[in-house]
Amino acid sequence: MSQMSIEQRYLLACQQIFPAVVPENPNYKDQVGTVLYEHINTLVGAKAPKVTGMLIDLPIEDIKLIMQDWSLLQTRVQQASELLDQQQPQ
């Protein structure tokens, strides 16, 4: 598995839980958050908990799209990170 790129590891991890991402599953946000957090942490570090929370609160169809597209995850993480920066000027 160490031979895989971060994108491949992300897509494989998402693929494993994708069938469980349905409104009928009361735990889907926790499951998605656990998978996404590891990858979001590599992208934004300390902001990962807040960014992960923002993404798992999106509509379920948006979450599914993010889970199938590494570049979309990167875009959404960047947008969320910028939004956090605007809310907390340093």
Outline the structure in words.
This protein is an all-alpha fold and 90 residues long. Helices cover 71% and strands 0% of the residues. The chain contains 5 helices and no strands. It has helices spanning 6-17, 28-44, 48-56, 60-67, 70-87. The mean pLDDT is 94.
The residue ranges in which pLDDT falls below 50 over 5 or more consecutive positions are none
Mean pLDDT: 94
Helix content: over 70%
Kindly estimate the percentage of residues that lie in beta strands according to DSSP: under 5%
Total number of β-strand segments? Answer: 0
- Series of H and E elements: HHHHH
- Span of the ends, CA to CA: 39 Å
Principal-axes geometry comes out as: globular
Helices and strands in order:
Blueprint: H1 6-17, H2 28-44, H3 48-56, H4 60-67, H5 70-87
